Amino acid sequence: MGKTREKKTQILGTVEEMAARWGVKERLAQALPLGKAYVACLAATVATSPRSKVQAGSANTALRKITLNLALLEPGREADRNATLLHECAHILADLAHRQNCRHGKRWKQVMELLGEEPLVNHDLAYLSPKLHARVTWACMACGQEYHYVRKPRRRPQDCCCRYCGPRRGRLRVVEVPVQLDLGFPVAPEIQKNKRQRKSA
After folding, report:
1. Which pTM value belongs to this model?
2. Contact partners, residue 54, CB within 8 Å, separation at least 6
3. For residue 16, what are the domain limits?
């Protein structure tokens, strides 16, 4: 029986510690008027997750925990990392200040503005795009619209349709995704084809 590789989260420190280390302590201090919510946010844990592929970060207010995508800690991505940390801090601050799950609603947006951040809901980070990390890609046979899946879909493409073309015209087909090597670049289609032929031989 093969051993399964366990993917564990790594604790980086508290929000207060990471904000000081990453140079966003003063910006986070703009939430000082929120009182107890601000104090609780500073004590929250910051961790990284190797499991996350396309999600930049998440906040669990009940556990007082913020989880960041491991890719954000790579050199040159400091601005993305800091923006994500503040985004998730805003969730904890808003939820605790208003004693409810504020999601990406008006109250969360107000906290984001208080921190001096643009209240954007979704990121546009190319290195966290679904297309880059897709295990499976489907495409509409009519318009070519692609649908990228980080995890293998439970349904088959023939049981689904394009959201734009509908069930009559929008039949879907599987698109071959180049295999990603450890070196970080895609394998050429010819090499990929040869690999399959060797396996079937």
Report:
1. 0.70
2. 128, 129, 130, 133, 150
3. 10-120
Is 198 within the bounds of a domain? no
Other CB atoms within 10 Å distance of the CB of residue 82? 18
Indicate the DSSP class of residue 92.
H
Domain-embedded: residue 152: yes
Of 138, 139, 166, 163, the closest CA to residue 152 belongs to 138
- 106-149 pLDDT tens trace: 999 999 999 999 998 877 777 777 666 567 889 999 999 988 77
CATH, residue 68:
3.30.2010.10
The answer as to whether 34 is a domain residue is: yes
174: β partners: 138
> Which two tokens mark 154?
């439970």
